[in-house]
Write a structure and sequence with these properties.
Length: about 220
């Protein structure tokens, strides 16, 4: 089954960032036979892993803000997602709208950006919470269904197993970024990493992004 690629600036940027991560893997492969003593080729795979997670985090933020801008500009009342209908603002902001000093769409966007722009979207619960602003769908559950359909139901992912898969990628990124991927209790030996593992992580990040985009429409 052909998987539609979103034709948005945000997704094109995501793909560009992901290709940069893949190029690091290619560079590692090209150096593998040379055995350069001063370079741990695994570091290129680790860098690709971190870059891939960064690309996903950036896309999740930009896609959230893009969709929110479209919704607040074009939808009203019961057309809005339930969480967005219940959004709360300071009284001062409400007064600014009432007196014409601010308009509601700008207020909503500014409010959401203030809350989410600097929060990493790594945690699966945080992703679901943020995206309830733009959709009433059960994001992880519906994304799992999309992935199963793309594999002609030869896979049987659930919301829980898909979140576990995603969290495993994030957890390894955290080990790389925060502890230099050192094995527990060892100050010199790092966890092994392979081209296949790094490539699979990037493929999964892209797959999850595509499934989210398909669910959200």
């Amino acid at each position: 089954m052909s998987i539609a690629q979103p034709d948005t600036r945000q997704f094109r940027s995501f793909k560009t960032n992901l290709e940069y991560a893949r190029s690091l893997i290619v560079a590692g492969n090209s150096l593998r036979g040379l055995q350069p003593g001063a370079l741990d080729i695994g570091d290129l795979y680790r860098a690709a892993w971190v870059q891939g997670v960064s690309a996903m985090d950036h896309w999740l933020h930009e896609e959230l803000f893009r969709r929110l801008a479209e919704i607040v500009a074009n939808s009203t009342g019961d057309e809005l997602p339930a969480t967005l209908r219940r959004i709360e603002f300071p009284l001062s902001a409400v007064e600014d709208v009432r007196t014409g000093q601010a308009n509601l769409p700008e207020l909503v966007l500014a409010h959401v950006r203030a809350k989410w722009a600097y929060q990493p979207l790594h945690n699966t619960k945080k992703i679901a919470e943020a995206y309830r602003l733009v959709s009433d769908e059960d994001l992880w559950s519906e994304a799992a269904k999309k992935i199963n359909a793309w594999h002609h139901h030869r896979t049987h992912y659930s919301a829980q197993s898909l979140k576990q898969q995603y969290s495993a990628i994030i957890n390894r990124r955290n080990l790389i970024a925060h502890t230099a991927d050192l094995e527990d209790g060892d100050l010199k030996r790092r966890r092994p990493i392979s081209e296949a593992e790094a490539t699979d992580a990037l493929d999964w990040l892209e797959r999850v992004a595509l499934s989210f985009a398909a669910v959200l429409g």
